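Why do we bother with a discrete structure alphabet at all? Because it lets us treat a fold like text: something you can write down, compare, and reason about line by line. To make this less abstract, here is a complete entry for Tetraacyldisaccharide 4'-kinase. Read it the way you would read a sentence in a foreign language you are learning: slowly, and without expecting to understand everything at once.
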Amino acid sequence: MRAPRFWGNPPARPGWQARLLAPLAWLWAAATARRLARGARARVGAPVICVGNITVGGSGKTPTVMALVERLTARGRKPHVISRGHGGSLEGPLLVDERRHTAAEVGDEPLLIAPFAPVWIGADRAASAAAAVAAGADALVMDDGFQNAGLAQDLAIVVVDAEYGFGNGRVLPAGPLREPVAAGLARADLLLAVGPEAARARFARDWPARVPLLGAELRPLATGMDWTGLRALAFAGIGRPEKFFATLRARGAELVATRAFDDHAHYDPRLLARLRAEAKALGAQLVTTEKDAARLPPALRAGVLALPVRLAFADPAPLDAALDRLGL
């Protein structure tokens, strides 16, 4: 889905649509609270670190999972990742094989994470976690699942886009929140604001929280590619495509056209053919995100450039302290 514009309004001016949808938002929040209160919260013999969010859409969870896995590995741990496998057709628990599986089978995010650590998909997070521990995991990173009540979380990290914040502060469908901010942060151990330094400073001012605040920024991976002056037709089906377009412009690319699709968009051959034809007519190169590239049919990836990004912590000390407390 594409986020309605009124979701991004300042909390002081939520818009008439948000006020009209307030009763439905109350029902959504109540249902989430009831589900969480009735959860079993299983334990499987290894610490569980949840990387989730309170808003829907892109906030930087997947790069955060990658960075966390690298940090745990550097500490001598054997982390495995558990994921819902959103958009995939296969049932779990299933160990992802990036050489054999496709995004249509296991979801795009598991395919991106799989080169960093073993990834297990499945709707039953506790079953996936048990399978990971049986396979040798001594630390579990749960990609998303902050509102999942099936597995106990030893460290809950809430990720938020520092530029977007919590939108208009309203719960679905009146706003972008999966649950009220106060209710979510009451269960969080760390709040990770992802974005430029100035945006992180504004977020800290506008959304003061009692949760320890971490800062980080998404930076393009150094691949040797010179983007300066590249005429590009950029397309993306992520939570906030405009962030990707802005990153390309900052790298010096000339975006002659942009195409924004729904989050986790499916790219079939006909759509790719239209994009290729448009790019050819404009004398432009097709460029997309690493996440979108994972969803492209393998036979159609040729000629499409991807811009990979990685998470860089501003000050990882609070995270390292939390990992120390878990014995990781």
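What the structure line is telling us, in plain words: The CA atoms of residues 190 and 211 lie 6 Å apart. The chain has two domains: 37-219+311-325, 231-307.
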